[in-house]
Amino acid sequence: MHAISISNLTKRFGGLTAVDGLSLSIPQGELFGLVGSDGAGKTTSLRMLTGVMEPCDGEAQVLGCSCLDLGPVRSDIGYMSQRFGLYPDLTVMENIRFHADIFGVPKAEWTARAEQLLAMSGMTPFMKRRAGALSGGMKQKLGLCCALIHTPKVLFLDEPTNGVDPVSRREFWHILNGLLAEGVTIVVATAYLDEAERCHRVGLLHHGKLLACDSPLNLKQLADPAIVDPTLEDVFITVMNEGGDTAVKRRSAPDLASAAPAVTLDHLSRRFGDFVAVNNVSLTVPKGEIFGFLGPNGAGKSTTIRMLCGILTPSSGGGSVAGLDITSQPEQIKENIGYMSQKFSLYEDLTVEENIAFYGGVYRLSSARLKERTEWVIEMAGLTDRRTARAGELSGGWRQRLALGCAILHEPPIIFLDEPTSGVDPLNRRNFWQLIHTLAAEGVTIFVTTHYMDEAEYCDRLALIYRGELVAVGTPLELKQQRAGDDGRLPGLEQVFIELIEERDTRDTHVQKV
Predict the structure, then answer these.
(1) Measured distance CA(123)–CA(273) in Å, rounded
(2) Do residues 201 and 64 both lie within one domain?
(3) In the 8-state DSSP scheme, what is residue 457?
(4) From residue 91, how far is each of 66, 127, 299, 510 by CA, in Å?
(5) One domain for residues 63 and 90
(6) Is 292 helix (H, G, I), strand (E, B) or coil?
(7) 388 lies in which domain range?
């Protein structure tokens, strides 16, 4: 029996066809992955299947009920949307309890399940923290905990690990594998193609149409024949780019040893009450470097960046950005940097052009300069046909490129990017990194956080922060060489990342026992 049956499902928004004649059947107990470029129709498809949105044509059934009336099976369906319904003034545990009450889960059952979910997702230490005070990735993990507080028969997940670190993503998939063992049918939309490799079948959407649907192994036959051992990401890029070259053209290796410092951290610390978010961090980032700042959710990455950008005052220690003191000259720093946060500050009710004009006013650009930079941003972001669209109507990837454009509208010498490509498809992520290397070639310093380990390879140097402390600093090659096996084989950065964190956890546990 099929858990989900879809026939000619179509959704139009005015002249735009978001989902175009989608037909698909998903058997019970299958893990089905839905991948596609930004705006391909993934979210719209999931919204129709969960009854959030009505189709214009076609029909779909979930557990034998039409998606137009899912009332009889509503309690058997779980759905985690990209904008999951967390209550920022409630604590982590209060949010979970609220969702348990909605699904009528008995107290004894939901408390035991909450303990398990919090432990698996690494959220146990934060159960009393307000949801509004969590990092972006931690909110994502809490959203999944809320969606799984009851055991559904069918679970829809819309990019559930968007912005979540590799360790936590591994924990997520451990949870999902447990659900599969219980017979739950799972449909997951994801921008992580390594995750899609774990699915039984994968559907590739583009402009609302299903271009391919098969097992990961069979789909790999669609990759460029020149690629040895292709991944699903290679398949995606081959299909999306129609064979064009998408390799990031790195700039020539800069002489960073003799470059002047652009960013310095000197025993920088930040406390929130009894909680130490950043603990005695010292670093120097030279001018023109692409510096990657890695760490699990809640490790202190965003807090560090906010201190460097003059948004937060350090509790102790100090630092400088562009020669300006982060404690005494925060306003001057803001004029000399570009900053793109996890919650990139676009005004959703304003159009693309209006958002750019707003930031042009903030940075006091002349009319002629603003006109020139506006055209550059629109072309860079691929928004030529959407310049009059409201920012809130854009897909996640377009919004992020627009946010980047607004952040560097005034051509600052230093740019801070906090998870700038979170949730963006592989082709657009590679295009984004091409832009970063182009900017760095012009002498711009890039300080970037990311959870994509393939992106970390594009950085000149990396630092790993965990529980507010620096754990490792070096080039990607140096970090991998330090963890080489006895046979000399180098591990991937993700494995290095996980091993370093596990070793620090083991050390901290030993210290606590002593």
Answers:
(1) 19
(2) yes
(3) T
(4) 36, 7, 19, 30
(5) yes
(6) strand
(7) 344-411
